[in-house]
Amino acid sequence: MSRVQLALNVENVDEAVGFYSRLFGADPAKRRPGYANFALTEPALKLVLIENPGHGGSLNHLGVEVGSTEEVTSATRRLSDEGLETKEQNEVSCCYAVQNKVWVDDPSGAPWEVYTVLADAPQQDASCCTGTEQADGAACCA
User: Fold this and answer.
1) Is the CA virtual torsion 64, 3, 115, 56 positive or negative?
2) What's the pLDDT at 137?
3) Which CATH code fits 3-120?
4) Are strands 97-105 and 87-94 parallel, antiparallel or unpaired?
5) Which of 31, 44, 47, 112 has the fewest CB atoms within 10 Å, measured from its CB?
6) Are the CB atoms for 78 and 31 separated by under 8 Å?
7) Quick one: which of 61, 64, 50 has its CA closest to 141?
8) Cis peptide before 43 (omega within 30 of 0)
């Protein structure tokens, strides 16, 4: 199974969780300080909320969650064959999960990842979201 991921910056994660819980009629699948995610089946969506004061209401990144490393490898090959610049990350701790992933940017610079979750993680790498830092030097998940 694959599903689209939408990662949003929010001003206050507790308020956002309250809103999205009511909107989707579901509780978060994972909660950490400043972080929450909803793993929804209807609609098929992984909604990630990242507390980022001053940037609330903006896009953090987009993704497609897939079921295996083989699917990430296949996506990497396909995207490269299509002439897209890819950046691979293996066994990175991101969004409180150990993941294998590949990144591409759309023509406007919006970051997309194709990823699989390998295990839960108690923390995340500072540059996990796009493999880079934002222009102001802040990590994208911070």
Assistant:
1) positive
2) 34
3) 3.10.180.10
4) antiparallel
5) 44
6) no
7) 50
8) yes
Confidence (pLDDT) at 84: 95
- Each domain of the chain, given as residue ranges in start order, spans 3-120
- Residue 68 DSSP code: -
Residue 136: the pLDDT is 36
pLDDT per position as a tens digit, 25-75 = 999 999 999 999 999 998 999 999 999 999 988 999 999 999 999 999 999
pLDDT of 93 over the 80 cut: yes
Q: Rounded distance, CA 21 to CA 132, Å?
A: 31
Instruction: Dig out the tokens for 109 from the structure.
Output: 């610079």
For Cα atoms 24, 29, 31, give the angle at the middle one, nearest 5 degrees: 110
The CA-based angle 7-9-12, given to 5 degrees, is 125
3-state SS, 72-109, equals HHHHHHHHHHCCCCCEEEEEEEECCEEEEEEEEECCCC
What's the mean pLDDT when you consider all of the chain? 87
Alpha helices, H only, the chain: 13-24, 69-81
Per residue in 81-90, pLDDT (tens digit) is 999 999 999 9
